[in-house]
Amino acid sequence: MSERIPAQIVETVEPRPPRLTPAQAGGAIHTRSFTGLFRNLRLGGAGALFLLFFGTAWLNWGDRQAVLWDLAEHQFYIFGATFWPQDFILLSALLIICAFGLFAITVAAGRVWCGYACPQSVWTWVFMWVEKVTEGDRQQRIKLDAASWSAEKLARRSAKHGLWLAVSLVTALAFVGYFTPIRALVHDLFTLQLDSTSAFWVFFFTAATYGNAGWLREKVCRDMCPYSRFQSVMFDADTLIVSYDSARGESRGPRRKEVDHQAAGLGDCIDCTLCVQVCPTGIDIRDGLQLECIGCGACIDACDSIMDKMGYERGLVRYSSERELAGGKTRWLRPRLVGYAAALLLMFGAFGWALSVRPMVQLDVAKDRGLFRENSEGQIENIYRLKVINKTQQPHRYAISLVEPGPFVLQGEQELQLAPGEILDVAVSVALTAERAASSSEPLLFAVMDLDDEQVRVSARTTFVSPVNR
């Protein structure tokens, strides 16, 4: 008779359904309050940016606003400097420098710009703080969402949206105040005398701030901002990103503080999901790098607080590189980063040089529509219109002349007095003193020299037209 194998009753356990993050669930993202190093850094940076944005608009420089882009007058004031549309090449250069700077920062430390300095992120954090003040912390807001409408819910929601609109209006006024004098703008708004153009832009930027920071939030970073799409192309194995150390954290699971989790086969992660609850884009950093991650470090602060309570070493979630997580050491001096740094230094140098040699007087020459005429002395004469611009903020005297005049003589007003920022149109004539020109069209070079500073001199080319045979 064969030996029987004893049977055992095995209890089957239904697998737990996968836990969806707020981003995966598609509902509203309610973040939890937290404290920590990176939150403090973000608050300090945001405070500095707020002071710069809101405070600079109210500064005066002499008898005018210190920073003002006066579109009507086509003059752009930045403290003691005045820029004109002709100087827009400098603005283009500055934008290129900023782009390279962003690329360099991304290669070195991922999306820290998004997490700490991007206006979308900064204003979203402000709006989330307003939510906490008016509706309570995370669990209270979740309960309020699920609750039916009542007087309390209406009051809390009204307070939240009222403060959102107030922040949006102040933001819009500050922004529009860089293009029209802010003191007059605020006065006209509160006295209901605001012109239609200014009113439109104040309303537009109020609505844009309210919609972006109040309603769209992470959707702007995830779906609308192109930066999140190409950031991965700029990362390399040494780029610092917010990372979960799975080798240390797995297997995750709850436990008591006094339990020897290593003996129990558990990693350092207690699966508290606090890192998910504080994330402004609603992702789980333990799933790896995702395009929704803005590198704000909120999950690092949350995880470090749990590690402290459990008595574990900090850094389960930290800024780290792919190479470091694999057991290597992050390399800082690498070709791509060094290349960006070198390009930035060269561009900063070139930009500084361009600012220092920027001519503070502008000369434009336009020839009169007529080809030529004969004056009372029988000389062939051409008429020109000269536009002279004083780009400084002081009155200056200028002298007009011809460079290497040869057989040509300048006639008309040759010394000018221009007020600060004045544009003056001057009509002058040039006569041919020779009996015959070398050709029907000869080059002329007009020059304007600052009589108060003879080192300031600009020139502009044109042509002199005359008959070959007379």
Automatic annotation (TrEMBL):
Annotated 4Fe-4S ferredoxin-type domain residues: 260-288, 292-315
Keyword Lipid biosynthesis: no
Gene3D superfamilies, per the entry: Alpha-helical ferredoxin, Immunoglobulins
Cited PANTHER family: FERREDOXIN-TYPE PROTEIN NAPH
Top-rank lineage group of the source organism: Bacteria
Any Pfam family matching the protein: Fer4_18
Keywords linked to the UniProt accession: 4Fe-4S, Electron transport, Iron, Iron-sulfur, Membrane, Metal-binding, Transmembrane, Transmembrane helix, Transport
Transmembrane segments: 41-61, 88-109, 163-186, 198-216, 337-355
Annotated InterPro entries: 4Fe4S_Fe-S-bd (IPR017896), 4Fe4S_Fe_S_CS (IPR017900), Cyt_c_oxidase_cbb3_FixG (IPR014116), Electron_Trans/Redox (IPR051684), FixG_C (IPR032879), Helical_ferredxn (IPR009051), Ig-like_fold (IPR013783)
GO MF terms, alphabetically ordered: 4 iron, 4 sulfur cluster binding; metal ion binding
Name assigned to this protein: Cytochrome c oxidase accessory protein FixG
CC terms in the record's Gene Ontology section: plasma membrane
